[in-house]
């Protein structure tokens, strides 16, 4: 008699859900189903960057050639620019504060292409669109799912890849509160505002002066309580721009419930925000006709990701400020044992023990990095101390590898199972 397949339900078809679905669909003893609330896979028209750690995972999944084709340039491992940091909040030309370089540098994509590369690697029968999960229940090792249209499904493992406003995270922490009476647990449900507003736009490269620094290298234009990031994507044909303006005293507050997190704004608002910055920045911003405006939120670092047969992944687990370009990369850095049905609680515990401290570290440091680029950290704009501090914020990219963590997780699993 063949053993029935182990059923994994993935709730959410963003970067984290699709990357997990691609990885698990390669395991013959696992049945994967992706339940996505929308009627199709969607990504916003903007850039996304990853670092060597994430690239190596994509290669291990056999996706290197597909992602090479859509990167700003095929990644070859040579030392390249991570970011070129400049002081830019003055009308005259700015100056370099720090040049960050590393193997592979910053690998950049158009988000729509990035998500599509996962979609193309997915078997055709795993996705169910228009399925908004509203709740789940657990009984005797089976997880039952309830969707908005009153349909139901069951699985052995439910993975919450449902993003920063995750309903699965909300249920996990509400139930943990009901069991323990500890009201602190309720604080992990809702994301909080970082105090930062971002503006985003894309610029066709031919509309910029040919020697504009953003075309060749990822740039970080820094100023007091503000910074501007730009880098080329789509084989170098487009420059992605995302700017940040912070009110550090507002970090941790809840955003006005009636206000949308993402809106459109006028070009004038964007230009006014960075008035009197160096000409290179003005050249970028004046080419963004219709910027979008984002209230950047993050989570309080969660104390756990797992409840029985339910686990959180991606932004549902560790939504973070984007100042280390790491949210999606962290979502891709998961590891599940190939045969989780052998010993699911220990496999999930090993995942949690390895991934949670690491992702929480990146979450906290991403926020701190932003304050460093904006001269709002304890180092102010004392470049002698600030530059080494910025450099050390990135050590996690190279100090450990996803492979060394996979081996640690495996060791942890064996220890728990013995
Ligand atoms: C300005 C900005 C810049 C960024 N830049 C970078 C960067 O350069 N590099 C990087 O690594 N990261 C970056 N990030 C972070 C990155 O975008 C996120 O970490 C990543 O997209 C999260 O993917 P996800 O799949 O976990 O969540 P999401 O992309 O939010 O996907 C969640 C999916 O779940 C679905 N869903 C939600 N609720 C339900 C439900 N109840 N039932 C069924 N489906 C549901 C949604 O429709 C959606 O498809 C940036 C973020 C911002 C805001």
TrEMBL record:
Residues 6-332 form the FAD-binding domain. Gene3D superfamilies: FAD/NAD(P)-binding domain (3.50.50.60). Transmembrane segments: none annotated. Keywords: FAD, Flavoprotein, Oxidoreductase. GO terms for biological process: secondary metabolite biosynthetic process. InterPro entries: FAD-bd, FAD/NAD-bd_sf, FAD_monoxygenase. GO terms for molecular function: FAD binding; oxidoreductase activity. The keyword Oxidoreductase applies. This is FAD/NAD-P-binding domain-containing protein. The lineage of its organism: Eukaryota, Fungi, Dikarya, Basidiomycota, Agaricomycotina.
């Amino acid at each position: 008699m063949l053993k029935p397949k182990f059923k994994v339900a993935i709730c959410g078809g963003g970067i984290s859900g699709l990357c997990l679905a691609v990885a698990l669909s390669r395991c013959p003893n696992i049945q994967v189903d992706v339940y996505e609330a929308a009627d199709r896979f969607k990504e916003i028209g903007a850039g996304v960057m990853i670092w060597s750690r994430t690239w190596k995972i994509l290669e291990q999944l056999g996706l290197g050639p597909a992602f090479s084709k859509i990167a700003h340039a095929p990644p070859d491992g040579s030392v390249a620019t991570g970011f070129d940091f400049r002081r830019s909040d003055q009308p005259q030309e700015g100056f370099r504060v720090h040049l960050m370089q590393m193997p592979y540098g910053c690998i950049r994509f158009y988000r729509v292409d990035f998500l599509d590369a996962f979609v193309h690697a997915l078997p055709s029968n795993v996705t169910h669109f228009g399925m908004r999960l509203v709740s789940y229940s657990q009984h005797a090792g089976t997880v039952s799912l309830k969707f908005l249209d009153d349909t139901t499904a069951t699985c052995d493992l439910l993975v919450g890849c449902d993003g920063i406003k995750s309903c699965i995270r909300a249920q996990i922490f509400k139930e943990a509160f009901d069991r323990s009476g500890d009201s602190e647990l309720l604080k992990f449900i809702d994301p909080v505002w970082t105090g930062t507003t971002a503006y985003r736009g894309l610029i066709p490269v031919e509309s910029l002066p040919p020697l504009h620094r953003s075309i060749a290298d990822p740039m970080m234009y820094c100023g007091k309580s503000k910074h501007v990031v730009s880098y080329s994507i789509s084989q170098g044909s487009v420059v992605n721009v995302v700017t940040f303006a912070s009110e550090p005293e507002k970090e941790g507050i809840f955003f006005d419930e009636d206000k949308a997190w993402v809106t459109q704004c006028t070009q004038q608002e964007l230009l006014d925000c960075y008035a009197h910055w160096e000409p290179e920045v003005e050249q970028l911003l004046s080419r963004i006709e219709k910027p979008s405006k984002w209230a950047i939120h993050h989570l309080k670092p969660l104390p756990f990701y797992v409840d029985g047969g339910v686990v959180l992944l991606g932004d549902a687990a560790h939504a973070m400020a984007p100042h280390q370009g790491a949210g999606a990369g962290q979502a891709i850095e998961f590891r599940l044992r190939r045969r989780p049905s052998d010993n699911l609680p220990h496999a999930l515990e090993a995942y949690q023990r390895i991934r949670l401290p690491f992702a929480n570290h990146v979450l906290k440091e991403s926020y701190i990095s932003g304050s460093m680029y904006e001269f709002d950290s304890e180092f102010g704009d004392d470049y002698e101390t600030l530059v080494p501090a910025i450099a050390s914020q990135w050590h996690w990219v190279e100090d450990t590898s996803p492979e060394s963590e996979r081996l640690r997780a495996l060791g942890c699993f064996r220890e728990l199972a013995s």
